[in-house]
Amino acid sequence: MPELKCFALNCSLKPSTSQEKSSTDKLLNDLIEALARHGAITAPVVRAADRNIKPGVLSDQGEGDEWPELRSKILAADIFILGLPIWLGQPSSIAKRVLERMDAFLSETDDRGRMPAAGKVALVAVVGNEDGAHHCHAECFQALNDVGFTIPANSGVYWVGEAMQKVNYVDLPAMPDAVQSALAMAASNAVHLAGLLKQDRYDGVAQ
């Protein structure tokens, strides 16, 4: 199995300077631990709210735009993890901005029509204390697949608390068994698929 690199982007609305703990961070770190058991190497999680990700659909929106650096980190990884909270039943606005910026991949194909994310695997980790995890996965996976990422089986991991209550994932005394098994399966499938794609990249189509 080749060495695999992972990169996780936390799309919480909270910057790292916030005094509040991030449930998204907690779930991402739990998933990273599961990936590490298979030998995957993960760079430090980046909090998107700490970066100036300008609106737009280009890979570089000009002066002050910090997306190009994040784009490089995403494309340097074999496994990309998008972590996000649910707000009003939707993926966070920051997650949507990240996906919008990846729209540029559609026009950045190589001589065989492959987008920059071709041959790379994507996972999505969702947290919230309301319904909407499956909806968020559907939106994110559709977008990630459109811009070239490959989605492994059982790769949508999540935790949602009881609706209209204040218990968050970060406050749980222990990881629920269902979450633990979902993380283990997602990690195993992602590493397996990423390893295959790293050794045998998609051919694309001659232009």
Automatic annotation (TrEMBL):
Domain of life: Bacteria
Ranges for domain NADPH-dependent FMN reductase-like: 7-163
Pfam families cross-referenced by the UniProt entry: FMN_red
Cross-referenced InterPro entries: Flavoprotein-like_sf, FMN_Rdtase-like_dom
Protein name: NAD(P)H-dependent oxidoreductase
Species per Swiss-Prot/TrEMBL record: Mesorhizobium retamae
Source lineage: Bacteria, Pseudomonadati, Pseudomonadota, Alphaproteobacteria, Hyphomicrobiales
